[in-house]
Amino acid sequence: MEEGMGESMTRVCPPNLRYEQQPQHTAGTIKKIRLENFMCHENFEMEFGNAVNFVLGQNGSGKSAILTALCVAFGSRAKKTDRANHLKDLIKKGCSNAVIHVEIQNEGEDAFKPEIYGDVIIVERRISVSANSIILKDHQGKRVGYRIADLREMVEHFNIDVDNPCVIMSQDKSREFLHSGNDKDKFKFFYKATLLQQVNDLLENISKEIGVAHGIVKDLEGSIKPVEKELKELQDKIKAMEHIEQMSVDIQKLKKKLAWSWVYDVDKNLQAQSAKIDKLKSRIPACQAKIDQQLNDIVRLKEGISEKKDAIAIMMEEYTQLNQIITDQNQPLSLARKEALELEHDCNSKTSKVQKMLQRLKKLEQEVQDLHEQHVKNTQAEKSDLEEKLKGLQHEVHTAELDWGRLKEEETKLMNNINLQNEEIKTIVYKIRGHENNCNEISKQIREYEQKQGNKIRVFGGERVMHLIYLVEKYHQRFKMPPIGPIGVHLNLLDAKKWAATVEHAIGGLLNSFIVTDHKDFLLLKQLAKEANYRNLQIIIYDFSIPRLKIPQHMLPETNHPSTLSLLQSENHTVINGNVERQVLVKDYDTGKVVAFNQRPRNLKEIYTADGKKMFYRGGVETTLPLKGKGPGRLCSSFEDYIKDLRSKASDEQNAANEGKSRKRQAEIKLRELESNLTSVKARHCIYCTIVRHCENVGRSLSSKKLALEEAMHQHAAENSSIPSSSVEELDVEITEFKKKLEEEQILLEALRQRKDEASGKAKDLKVKFDKLRGSAEDKFTVIEKAGNQCRKIESELELAEQGKAHYENLMENKVLPAIKKAEEEYQELTKMREEYAKKASIICPENEINDCDSLEGCDMKTPDQISAELKELSQKVEHECRRHVVIILPHVIILQPSRSFWQDLFIFSFLIFSCSLCRHSEPIADLRMLYEKKQRKIMKRQKVYKALRQKLDACQRALEIRGKKFKSNATRLKQQLSWKFNDHLRKKGISGLIKVNYEENTLSIEVQMPQDASNRAVRDTRGLSGGERSFSTLCFALALHEMSESPFRAMDEFDVFMDAVSRKISLETLVDFCVAQGSQWLFITPHDTSTVKPGPKVKKMQMLAPRS
Q: Which residues does UniProt call coiled coil (predicted)?
């Protein structure tokens, strides 16, 4: 309705009434709304008051569309409005777009970005079939924002939650709320309206984040454990220093025992090295023999290559000479051909000239003859002659035009044939692509069926159902009963080869579905399906405790054909308890037609045929439908036969594609022939066009002469004198001179013809000679290529021989001779080592002392290996301890080995003893202790940091617990406050009531005590009240919630739908008093009479026009 109608219904009260002053609009209130092509409104505009607004009108006048528009304008989705599934469905029928224009007051302390928007914010929502947009404008209509984030920022600033039923209670929510007797639904309404839901969600998210932080701190605390372990190891190293010093003393005692043992060991090595040298020298003669053999082969092959290369060089020289001769002969041949063509052209020109001269001569002679004829023959005869010549030329033109027309028809026919051939090629290409696509599609089906062959579950849903089954097994404890599915996995089919495809048509839509036992399991399975990306999963709710149904015989179809139920078997009775006993299966269409339309047995629902038809008879109408999809059926026991058929079909499609390619090549050859013929016809067409043009020119010349002759006839008619003799004599002189010129031209023509024949003969001779030379050159090139292949073969053999020679020379130089040289050098080194060891051992211990068993503790009773082993064992202990504890102090500790020189070992042992003696007071030990202290300080610092983090997290956890307790305390006070406010509103009608909220069971129950009830029993279920009483009690509950929530405006649609007149009057007065007291903007939509509402500046009534029929 227009603004004027809304103002005409507003009543102004005197100043002494309770609503004396019209308040100003506050920030966030709705100032005006305008709708274009939205739902039932074509062009609608309405301005609202700043306090209480009543929108009145009959059903269907578009009242509820205003609330729907507000919800959509503030970002609500179409499904949440309960009016449409998509925004495009809200566009008025017959229109392509819709506009929602809402103006919001933006004044006062709570104004949203007043420096940008000004005192009014305009929200404009445009909806089209393909898209929708949001535009935020300032008070001047200038666009400021266009993103959904800008709208959300404004809505959050004004605390406008259109999804909260306390802000906008639509018609459907009102009816649902008034009718709902479910305590859980009331609790959800209360929990969301009081923002407890939002606070609870925030606390749960914070708790999860604190848990994650605890895990991170735990990981950090665990990361310093290796450092603590390293610190302990460092302490152990320091403690082990003294033990290393004691072992060094023991090593000093073994030093003398080892001194002469290495000297004797070197003597043994000298003997072994001498035998090794003799053995290596014996390999030289055999290796040299192999090298000599390879050298002989190389010489022989090089000689063969040299001979071949010489022969190839000679042949290449001959081939080059032949190519040069061919090149030289090619130019004379081209010149001869050019000369012959030029002479032929000159000859043709001369012939044409001679013919023209002959024609001219004949014409002159004819003129003389005409002049000598009788004078009686006047110019009429000349005119007749010209007419005859003109007729002859016209005849020639006509003949040429006929030939030209015939060529034109032939050209058109060839063009049509070419077009048909192109169309045929396109058709063949289209068929080839079709066959290839069919082949690819069949190959894809083969791969799918091969995958299904290995896993029966994957047949009924693919990878999605596998993922879903995994999730069901993972969360099986959350189900009351494990879901059953897919149903197809639990079914076995009798005579599957015959009926699998038919049963697939009958119940194929149910094979992928799952069965659950209650609604809770339904919601859980639906959530798991969404997680598995299984969006369209069909879920059936069925009580698993129901035993298998036994269907009486009289309820089954009275026919001998099998039903779907009779062919299915399952170990699970829940799967079998389906409504498939009335589906009958037959073998073909004719049988199904007789049963469905002629016999029509009782209890028959549908008939499915094996050849893909569905039949049923309902309401006297016979219906036959073709069924889509081909295949063996997913209940088939094996797909092998079907896969074989598919492979055969794929082979046929491939063969058809290859045959099409062959036909395409033939068609292309034929197309090229037609194009060649078309080119020839076009050339002939050009020749005939030239002839026609020439004849037309001659005809025009004769016509002009005819006209000149007719003019001369009038002059000759007056003349009677005879022909002047001077004209005849002049013609005779001209004829004589013309004959001389003609004879000269004929002589020149004969000379040209002779020269042309000579040039043509010369060109033919040169062509024959050129072809002969080219053939000789090709034969020579074949011989050269063959010789080159032989040469390359010999070169490969030579390469192998050189590789063999290089191998044996390398073996001689790099292995045999170096090994001998190395062995001799080692022998010399051992000799020198023996002398050096003996000399240095004498310094440590004279050789005669080795017989002194008392001083060396019986070293003659131990072999050098035993002494070395004992020393090695002790040195390994020292090295092991050094590696574990004193790596920094002794980085050069080396295990003794028999292959190492004695004096190297002796030096190492001395260095070891000296180093161990300095372990207690050396600088590296101090560095080690400093490193220990440094790491200890670092660990303590990190422990302190982690401890502080742990304390902060504990403080956060305690704060969260405190907030949780406060949340529970506030929730308790809110439910008490709700009960008190609810009872206050009920008292206005003389009713008392109580609201009980149970946060553990998520329930909210309302108890109402009616004044007329003598039993004083409270009504626990509001459905036990009358419609008006239930509506009023529910309204009181809603008003109590409104007092506990904040919003700049609120709206209620058909809140008084079930109230009687008395309850409506009390409810309206209660609502108006409440709204005025609260101070926010209210919008009430009702089809009922509101005359009982006392008017005032804060009350505005707007009447909607009656709906059009």
A: 217-244, 347-403, 657-684, 728-840
